DNA sequence: TAGGTTTGATTAAACGATTAATCACCTTGG
DNA sequence: CCAAGGTGATTAATCGTTTAATCAAACCTA
């Protein structure tokens, strides 16, 4: 910057003013400075700016449950939104452990991030950390900043399955400690309505007994009359789909399978999985915006390290209908003396 | 730091020296300073340090092909290795497009990263960018810093399948422009040996004709005598597995399926997929180490913006045998007049 | 004891931007 | 013709750390 100033015979303060548009600089001089900027290939020193202003222009992204296959999409969306808002994104992984999560946050703070976006590990709460924070979890989580409307997503899927004529539906979840999963399950039940019989399978419980990666025993459920299997996320849907197929159940003719999140593979398996897609771009935008506001607030005297304010409503999810769900099989007609029940 | 100096009645330079261990400071004073450090909750200002030293302690991570489901694992591994080496990790996404890749790298440089780790999009080359760079691709890529020994992985899988008695194997790849995929295919062929019949299916070509997500037509291949399907990464393996199962082929009794990378879902589908796991922790460690060296070198006069030096050999992959591969089916014996061909 | 070396600490100048305070000059109204 | 106000630019301090240069005192050696 000093170089530019010297080259044009002005002071460095003028250059700074011209580029930031803050002080009073004539239009022509501003233009000349702009030109010199590109001619000399000027790149502002973030470090100096940070030292002076106290802001790094970097936000941290904490994803405790990094094995979450949704990670790429979230990271991508956040990075885009942050870049658009002029922020860089520093990642922090905590390998799932709560203690490491704290350590990861500590590393971010030492690096001087202006704020942090956290996608909490299921069931964990985020304590006060002295830095602006935005949380992406579920609308029912206290302190949640923004998230998908998981409940409504469940409702959509419930209605979809109901509309296909399914009367006995198995809801498959992993853990009862997850707000997101609970929301989805709740929505599913609401969407199915009270005339449809449903049952919930908690894989967590099953695995506690039969070991991780055990069979879900879905063939038995099919024999028991279940015609639809609504999983709470695509990984479980995939598990259900492959188990059903291996055991000779035709999907979707004999059983429908659905998931949540529209992960990469959901569209390439056979049959492709009907699922709900999150609008992560919007979520990321809102999270970054809310965090940005919180950062600004926290700088006003007595604003304090604010937590980003909550969005009132969740971001809508969109139903993606593929071939893993279909019309419910005609229930096996128990031969009763009723001739009006024709073949079909 | 000034505060600490004032509190102890020494100069700030002494504090700096004591903490960095560089100058000459008496042991007792150093101890007192250390104590004051924790008492006052001193956190060094990265910004000031950066301004003075020109190093940010942050490296950039560029993953152009972010849809790559291996992303979480790579990001996690790099973050861990970087944190251990005292670096932070700034991510940059480029939505696949080459132009955006350049833009993303530009953003990183503006933020002042000390170096960049790139996992290149298949088939793309990384140009000179004036900053130390480490590349993770495949041993056969020029300029590659470190990567798995994909070829050897292929060999391992090839031998595994050969050992199970498979005589007609379909190799499934996505693109012929990927060095990684080519290495794996080459290794597979070598591992199978020349007595085993194999054929390569390029999904890219198939989709150019039949559209993305089309059926691979594996049932026909099974009818044609193929008993094993070796995909070049797990997503393709999953696609193959589900297609086979949907069409009523029993895996692994009638056909074996294998993949690469051991992605999250590979172990939970039914049957779980036999695959090769990359040692990403080691790769990340070496990449960070090499990059760190390159950063140091680039600071010596005339060291220039060095590219991290290459590791001589790739990092070994480990074969994870699960239930998707099994003994080859006895080929249907064509009834010829040869009685010595006994039943078995 | 003078001269040289070692030890422990200080001084002061950077690094590159931002910004409040100041200044010189010009315009304009009374 | 002078005071008031506006405009365009400069001055200089500041952010917190590192580090080369310097310095004073103590220690050693001949």
Keywords:
homodimer; 344 residues; alpha/beta; Rossmann fold; 3 domains; four-stranded parallel beta sheet; 12 helices; 10 strands; DNA-binding
| Average predicted local confidence, pLDDT of chain A | 89
- Give the helices and strands of chain A as they follow along the chain: HHHHEHEHEEHEHEHHEHEEHE
Task: List low-pLDDT spans of chain A.
Answer: 333-344
CATH class of the largest domain in chain A: Alpha Beta
Give the strand tally of chain A.
10
What is the number of domains of chain A?
3
Overall 3D form of chain A: elongated
Sheet with the most strands: spatial strand order of chain A: 2-1-3-4
Number of helices of chain A: 12
Could you tell me the strand content of chain A as a percent range? 5-15%
Within the CATH hierarchy, at the fold level, what is the topology of the largest domain in chain A? Rossmann fold
Tell me what the CATH architecture of the largest domain in chain A is: 3-Layer(aba) Sandwich
Structure class of chain A: alpha/beta
Query: What would you give as the CATH superfamily of the largest domain in chain A?
Result: Response regulator
Largest sheet of chain A: 4 strands, parallel
Assembly status: homodimer
| First and last CA, distance of chain A | 81 Å
Helix residue percentage of chain A: 40-55%
The value of Rg of chain A in angstroms is 27 Å
């Amino acid at each position: 910057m000093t170089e530019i100033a010297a080259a044009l015979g002005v002071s460095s303060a003028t250059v700074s003013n011209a580029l930031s548009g803050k002080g009073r600089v004539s239009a022509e001089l501003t233009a000349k400075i702009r030109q010199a900027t590109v001619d000399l290939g000027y790149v502002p020193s973030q470090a100096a700016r940070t030292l002076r202003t106290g802001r790094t222009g970097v936000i941290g992204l904490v994803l405790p449950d990094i094995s979450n296959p949704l990670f790429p999409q979230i990271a991508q969306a956040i990075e885009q939104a942050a870049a658009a808002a002029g922020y860089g994104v520093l990642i922090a992984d905590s390998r799932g452990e709560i203690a490491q999560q704290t350590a990861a946050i500590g590393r971010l703070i030492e690096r001087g991030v202006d704020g942090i976006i956290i996608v909490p590990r299921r069931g964990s709460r985020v304590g006060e950390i002295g830095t602006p924070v935005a949380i992406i979890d579920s609308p029912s989580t206290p302190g949640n900043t923004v998230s998908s409307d998981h409940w409504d997503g469940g409702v959509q899927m419930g209605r979809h399955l109901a509309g296909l004529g399914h009367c006995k539906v198995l809801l498959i979840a992993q853990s009862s400690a997850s707000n997101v999963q609970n929301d989805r399950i709740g929505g599913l039940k609401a969407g199915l309505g009270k005339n449809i019989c449903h049952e919930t399978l908690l894989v967590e419980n099953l695995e506690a007994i039969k070991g991780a990666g055990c069979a879900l025993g879905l063939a038995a459920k099919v024999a028991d009359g279940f015609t639809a299997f609504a999983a709470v996320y695509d990984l479980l849907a995939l598990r259900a789909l492959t188990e059903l197929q291996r055991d000779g159940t035709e999907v979707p003719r004999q059983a429908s399978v659905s998931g949540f999140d529209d992960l990469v593979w959901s569209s390439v398996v056979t049959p492709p999985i009907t699922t709900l897609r999150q609008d992560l771009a919007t979520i990321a935008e809102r999270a970054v915006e809310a965090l940005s506001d919180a950062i600004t607030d926290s700088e006003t005297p007595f604003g304090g390290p604010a937590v980003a304010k909550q969005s009132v409503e969740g971001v809508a999810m969109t139903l993606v209908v593929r071939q893993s769900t279909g019309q419910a099989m005609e229930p096996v007609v128990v031969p009763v003396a009723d001739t009006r029940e024709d073949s079909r």
